[in-house]
Fold:
Amino acid sequence: MKERRFLFGLFLIFIGIIFFMQMTGFIHLSASSIWPVIFIILAVGFHAGFVFTGKRPDKAGLLVPGGITFVLGCLFFFETSTGWAYSGMTWPVYLLAPALGLFELW
Structure:
C-alpha cells in the first residue's frame, strides 16, 4: 500500500512540474508533443511490476527496461516540448539511458 502512495505521489509531482514549466513558458505543450508520456507510463509500469512482486531477485530484470524507457521518455518529452532545439546538445542522454537501467539493476 505504501508503494502505491509513493508512486502516486511521484506522478503528481511530475505532473505539477510539467504544469509549472508550461505556465512559466519554458515548454509549450500541444497534442502532438504529449506522445513521449507513453514511454514514461511504460517505465512506471516496469517499476511497479518490480515493486508489487515483492522485489524478488528474479524480477529485477524489469528495472533495466524501466530505467531506459524512463530516461528516453523524459528526453523525448523535453525535446518535443522545446521543438527539438537542444537535440544537438542532448545526444549523450541516449548513451546514459542504458547506463541508468543497468545501474538500477545493480
Notes: The mean pLDDT is 83.
